[in-house]
């Protein structure tokens, strides 16, 4: 059953019905029945070990559920060939991994995966420049050595690599975890503007409540493999219904206030 006071989004990109996942005899996710809105920016929040990343990995079939039904754009997710699904739902990991070579080589590898290897050199260069522009990097980054980039630049290149084949959904697993607060804030602002300008569906795991407050339109609170509540971000973040959500938000806001006071 869905958690109390957790309205379903009007148009879901993903629908989970009694979804569970067991690995090594341990339940990672239990009876998840929620929807994630198409065109929205969903933040998955909750303490460590809540199951946030386990849920995210189901959304482009890095893992499959052990129980229940998961639908993507109205169809069972297992009905999509994995490669086709991953072209429609790009994934950005917590730690960006750069392929050997230049930034252009990294983005070109994504084009090859998408089946665009036969495009003209000029056409590929235009696609690469457009993807870099989406993540607010200029075309001058294309010939740079990817391994020599800063952490923030690498994460933006990883985003461009996920976006270059024009997915409908972007899945992000704590993309700012390795970044300092200022660089992280700029990246979240880029993601917020990207969703607003393109209608891209974003689902992001975050441990920083500020990111959910700044960018999310929908929030899912998880704990111990369960969804405690979900709903529009202003309502859930300002008027949470579940006592554990209230405690989690109060602790996070308290830590933020304490940190600000000591700086």
* Span between termini: 44 Å
What's the CATH class, please? Alpha Beta
Strand elements, count: 10
* Class inferred from helices and paired strands: alpha/beta
| Strand line-up across the major sheet | 6-7-8-3-9-10
Q: Given the structure, what is the number of helices? A: 9
Mass-distribution shape: globular
Order of helices and strands: EEEHEEHEHHHEHEHEEHH
Characterise the protein shown here.
By secondary structure, the chain is of the alpha/beta class. Helix content is 39%, strand content 24%. The chain contains 9 helices and 10 strands. The protein has helices spanning 52-58, 82-88, 103-113, 121-134, 151-163, 181-198, 209-215, 233-238, 243-262, and strands at 12-23, 26-37, 41-45, 67-72, 75-76, 89-92, 169-173, 201-205, 218-223, 226-232. α3 (103-113) packs across α4 and α4 packs across α5. The radius of gyration is 19 Å and the shape is globular.
Short descriptors:
263 residues, alpha/beta, Rossmann fold, six-stranded mixed beta sheet, 39% helix
């Amino acid at each position: 059953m869905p958690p109390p006071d957790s309205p379903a989004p009007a148009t879901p990109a993903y629908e989970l019905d009694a979804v569970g996942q067991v690995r090594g005899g341990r339940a990672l996710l239990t009876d998840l029945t929620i929807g994630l809105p198409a065109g929205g920016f969903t933040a998955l929040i909750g303490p460590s070990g809540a199951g946030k990343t386990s849920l995210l990995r189901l959304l482009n079939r890095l893992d499959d559920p052990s129980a229940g039904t998961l639908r993507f754009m109205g169809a069972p997710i297992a009905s999509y060939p994995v490669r086709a699904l991953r072209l429609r739902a790009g994934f950005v990991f917590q730690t960006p991994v750069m392929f050997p070579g230049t930034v252009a080589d990294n983005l070109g590898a994504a084009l090859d995966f998408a089946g665009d290897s036969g495009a003209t050199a000029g056409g590929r260069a235009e696609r690469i420049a457009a993807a870099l522009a989406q993540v607010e990097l200029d075309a001058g980054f294309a010939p740079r050595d990817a391994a020599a980039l800063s952490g923030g630049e690498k994460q933006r290149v990883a985003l461009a690599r996920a976006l270059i084949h024009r997915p409908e959904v972007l899945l992000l697993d704590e993309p700012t975890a390795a970044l300092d607060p200022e660089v992280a804030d700029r990246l979240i602002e880029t993601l917020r503007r990207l969703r607003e300008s393109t209608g891209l569906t974003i689902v992001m795991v975050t441990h920083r409540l500020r990111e959910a407050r700044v960018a999310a339109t929908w929030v899912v609170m998880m704990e111990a493999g369960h969804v405690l509540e979900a709903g529009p971000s202003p309502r859930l973040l300002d008027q949470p219904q579940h006592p554990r959500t209230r405690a989690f938000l109060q602790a996070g806001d308290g830590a933020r206030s304490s940190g600000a006071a000591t700086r």
